[in-house]
Design brief:
By secondary structure, the chain is mainly alpha-helical. Helices cover 77% and strands 0% of the residues. It has 6 helices and no strands. The longest helix has 32 residues, at 85-116. The protein is flat, with a radius of gyration of 24 Å. The relative contact order is 0.09.
Length: 124
C-alpha cells in the first residue's frame, strides 16, 4: 500500500481483488466441508467448483493485465528521468527528505497540543 500502486496502475485492484476473493472462496469451502456426508456430496462439490471456477479463474488474466500495465508504467516513469539512475536516486532522496519534514511538523504540532492540552487536536 505504501507504493500507492492503485493510483498509478488502476488494474492492480482487479488482480488483488481476484486473489483476496479466491482466498475467501476457499475459506468458505473449507468452513462448509463439515456438512459433508455420503448422502450429501453435491454441496461440497458445488462449493469446490465455485471456488475453482469463480474468482480463481480470473487471477491469470487480471494479474497478466496488471503486469503488462505495470511494466508500461515503469518504462514510462524511467524514461521520464532521461534514463539516468542518478536522477532516480536523487528524486528518491528528496522524497524521503520531504516526508521527514512533514513528519517533524506533525510531531511538533502534537507536542504543542500536549503542552496546551488540546487533546482533541491530538486525536485528529
Amino acid at each position: 500500500m505504501g507504493l500507492k500502486i492503485e493510483t498509478d496502475v488502476p488494474t492492480s485492484a482487479d488482480c488483488i481483488d481476484s486473489l483476496v476473493y479466491t482466498i475467501d472462496d476457499f475459506t468458505y469451502f473449507k468452513n462448509n466441508i463439515t456438512d459433508y456426508n455420503s448422502k450429501s456430496w453435491e454441496a461440497p462439490m458445488l462449493n469446490l467448483t465455485r471456488a475453482i471456477g469463480g474468482n480463481f479463474s480470473t487471477i491469470p488474466i487480471d494479474c497478466k493485465v496488471f503486469g503488462d500495465d505495470y511494466g508500461a508504467y515503469t518504462v514510462a516513469k524511467y524514461s521520464g528521468f532521461n534514463g539516468k539512475i542518478g536522477d532516480i536516486i536523487l528524486a528518491f532522496v528528496f522524497n524521503i527528505m520531504g516526508n521527514s519534514l512533514k513528519f517533524k511538523t506533525a510531531m511538533d504540532d502534537i507536542n504543542n497540543d500536549i503542552k496546551n492540552q488540546f487533546y482533541t487536536d491530538i486525536a485528529q
